[in-house]
Amino acid sequence: MSPSHRKPNTLLTHLGREPKKQHGAVNPPVYHASTILFEDVESLRAAKEIRMRPDAVTYGRMGTPTTMALQDSVAALEGGYAGIAVSSGLAAVTASIMSFVQAGDHVLMTDSVYGPARAFCDSTLAKFGVETTYYDPLIGSDIASLIRENTKIVFTESPGSQTFEVQDIPAIAEAAHAAGAAVLMDNTWGTPLYCKSFELGVDVSIHAGTKYIVGHSDAMLGIIVTSQAFYEKVRRGVMSLGHSAAPDDVFLGLRGFRTLSVRLEQHHKNGVALATWLQQRPEVARVMHPALPDDPGHELWKRDFSGACGLFGLVLHPVAQSAVDQMLNHLELYGMGYSWGGFESLIVPTDPRSIRTATDWNAQGPSLRIHAGLEDIDDLIADLEAGFERLNRAVAAE
């Protein structure tokens, strides 16, 4: 199916499916494969020549028809050239970066980046002689002042992890490209449905498919989508590092892909409703959600995104951590666990100060991250309201 003239919901339903080629079955079969056999030695030799093609089936680690159904679907939805599936979101981040750099190179990394990505830069990249400079996520076109002759990539994440700053990706991309640097973006929050990263100037878009693409908190998956210019570079990098995605996890990614639109619509609705309600709470100093009209990043969000997911943050007024613990410990509908993007609501304490070096996080009170799931909004609000009552009782008892 040609995706050029189809609308997103149609693409989500039909991409990657060819029932006529699979005995009428609606879904692609799950190929469990390592060895791929060839009919003759000529075909075996030819496999080496075609293995970089997005549709080449030459060895299980390099992809099967199941893998390609997901890769092609995500890439087509986002507007990229081709996708590459790996075992996790962090694998997608690290393999993408490693594909561009070697000893002596320089990387620009947003200061609001996902914590494990920062740890990778500070440990693995540094060990191999690649220097990382962290920059203010709100720098925009002034990123040009930080780009050096040996800067190979500018890494972006919008909105930012834990603090949800919206970056001016087109301005950053223009400056980076003028200096010969590639732009990588962690687009997990926006998803390939709500943020068309390649239209913003991104060269490589990275997704923790574990989150909204899978959507059910039961599989680990990463998806890298590239422009045509950088596909072979990234594909070679992924191959040399030995990355691949497990077939059953790919199948769960395909299954989640079909319902991405309807799930995100409810995540968006619940997330905005919760964030708006939290703005009115006396215990809350600030809500960090770019879809709110008074959020500092709202105008950029309106320009670059067509919707919001369920993930956002908030800052409480100064209060003892023990009181916050009382609030969180007895919530009934909000699980406490890392990751997000599943059907269930989550809440965790955060500390942005621990993952900032280029910018200061000067909030006076403790911060929380909420993932708004698919539950009824009245029940979600009631559970948080009871939590605030426990917090206030704990404060009064001090």
Structure, explained:
The radius of gyration is 22 Å and the shape is globular. The protein has two domains: 8-258, Aspartate Aminotransferase, domain 2; 260-397, Aspartate Aminotransferase, domain 1, CATH 3.90.1150. Helix 4 (89-98) packs parallel to helix 5 (115-127). The relative contact order is 0.12. It has helices spanning 8-14, 41-50, 65-78, 89-98, 115-127, 169-178, 191-194, 228-241, 247-258, 260-279, 298-304, 321-329, 377-397, and strands at residues 82-86, 106-110, 131-135, 151-157, 182-186, 204-207, 222-226, 284-288, 311-316, 334-335, 345-350, 367-371. It starts with 7 loop residues before the first helix and ends with a helix. By secondary structure, it is α/β, with parallel strands linked by helices. The longest helix has 21 residues, at 377-397. Helices cover 38% and strands 15% of the residues.
